[in-house]
Amino acid sequence: MPAIGSKARRDRIVHLATTTGLASVEELSQLFGVTASTIRRDLAKLTSDGRLARTYGGAMALAAHPEASLRQRTGEAFEAKQAIARWAAAEVRPGETLLLDAGSTVGALAHELRSAKDITVATTGLTALQELSDIESVHVECLGGTLRPLSQGFVGPLTEAALERLTFDRLFLGTDGVSPELGICEADLRQTRLKELMARRADRVYVLAHAAKLGRHPFHTWTPLRPDWTLVTDDEADPRIVEGLRSRGLTVVQVKPERHTGD
Length: 263
Fold this sequence. Notes:
Elements: H1 6-20, E1 23-24, H2 25-32, H3 36-48, E2 52-55, E3 58-61, H4 70-74, H5 78-91, E4 97-100, H6 104-112, E5 119-123, H7 126-132, E6 138-142, E7 146-148, E8 153-155, H8 157-163, E9 168-173, E10 177-179, E11 183-186, H9 189-200, E12 202-208, E13 221-223, E14 230-234, H10 239-247, E15 251-255
Helix pairs in contact: 2-3, 5-6, 6-7
């Protein structure tokens, strides 16, 4: 294919992902005659703009439904999520009581906590429950309620009532998008209300969000950010957004994923 500009190339990537399905970095690099790094930057931009969903090794078209399922999100920004989860797990100390949100990045954290000793984990997410259900050194509490199939998380008055009986050393939140001005974005008002209630019950709050989620506004319900929270993201985060978050008092931690270079 003759060389084309970056905008035209990105438009073509969206078209290919929409018409043929999953597009890998290697295939796109060969097709357009550019480096894998160039394609990764294209995919990061398209994901940030909400035009594609990242997967492990490539990208796929966004589903017709505006909210992707947990299964669809699991492969997005895989290496970044793993690095974020490892950093978060290293913060946990023996004897602590944790609250884990639903979501794929928090699910990755739950996997990292399988080797933890003498901790209590309460969670609203099925992924975390599945990861920790067979670990004897982790005491698990399920905050039940109404299950949202897309997010595989519990919400609603029963979940909120359970929260009123508990406090936590650390809370780890997931998100569909982060805005310095607006806060944490979710598809459902019940989710944003629940996140706000969860934060009130924890001494330390961490928002786990890979770079493509920063600056995203996919939905219209929000949980305000508080200046004493910590956002954990990866090293591809937009510096302007990072600065915007820090200017509001948040601590921003950027981890470096172990990226594979075989493509």
